[in-house]
Amino acid sequence: MLFLLLPLLALAYVSWHVWLLLPLSWGWKILVVLLMVGAFAMLFASIFRATDRLPMPVATAVYEVGTSSIIVLLYLTMLFVVLDIARLLHLLPAAWLRDNWWTAGGIVLFLLGLFVYGNIHYHHKYREEVTLRSAKVTKPVKLVLMSDLHLGYHNRRKEFARWVDLINNEHPDMILVAGDIIDGSMRPLREERMHEEFRRLEAPVFACLGNHEYFSGEPEAQRFYSDAGIHLLRDSSALQGDLCILGRDDRMNRRRRLLKDLVASADKTKYLILLDHQPYHLEQAEREGVDFQFSGHTHHGQVWPISWITDAMYECAFGTYQRGSTNYYISSGLGIWGGKFRIGTRSEYLVLTIEPLQRGQAGW
Question: Domains of the chain: which residue ranges?
Answer without folding.
Answer: 2-121, 125-356
